[in-house]
Write a structure and sequence with these properties.
The complex is a heterodimer of chains A (76) and B (218). Chain A has 76 residues and is mainly beta. Chain A is 0% helix and 51% strand. Classes of the chains: A mainly beta (76), B alpha/beta (218).
Chain lengths: 76, 218
Amino acid sequence: MAKVVLPALGEGIEKATVSYWHFEIGQEVKEGDELIEMATDKAVFNVPSTVMGVLKEKLVQDGDEVKVGEALATIE
Amino acid sequence: MNLSVIDLGIISFKEAVQRQIRVHREILQGDSSHTLILCEHLHTITLGRQANTTNILDYKFIKDNNIDFLVGVNRGGDVTYHGPGQLMGYLIFDLRNLGRDLGWFLKRIEGLIIDTIAAFNIQGNIKSGFRGVWVNERKIASIGIAVDRWVSLHGFGLNVNTDLRFFDIIKPCGLDIRMTSLNECLGGPMNMELIKRELIEQTAESFELIGSKEYLCI
């Protein structure tokens, strides 16, 4: 079981908002697949899966604000 | 590292997006370097992913004037207007070799715009809590980017000779603000080619890239 976290985004950006999920629970994901789209005030970006497996849990939902380092998903 | 520059002239927003996607793919494949795409758009209103449609103030004007209206554009930011006289700078940059730092990248974009307009004796500023470049309390340039696999898309719009009345049909960036342009600041229309040259130079300098003196006009 691995957790995917919001990675460091650089200078002065400490949080981002969930735009939408590219995968549904139960779907297989490969390492590097774009898992979730996030947005800051002026940038949108995708967070990739860091491992191969099945998306077990979505720990955040569309519209949620997430801090850098917080877990987004569990991959089994 | 090199900076490639592509000048698309006046082109629709959709076509410019297609071109960006092509360059983005080439960069991911290792076939292109950091690329600055310059262009102007036809009259267009775009809404970013987080945009609030209540920030459109005059749908009738948009419809009556056949203004392109695009919702859910894959960039940060709220609603904005693009049109002739506004210089678009799309930065398709490989952030994998520029430190993977979104905050730094956005600040650099603001910096290169400030340096560009400074060459024309306009003092631009950043404003705490807001993105973009401001001249006094008016916004002269808006920024909105996307990053996919650490290669950026989209960029900024700098109002050079923009007809600012078009901003009255929206709340730009969802804010109660006034926009301005180089034309308004200096009291007369500006030569777009001169601005482009300065912008290319400042982009290369800001990111410590080698810019070619000649650039592609397609």
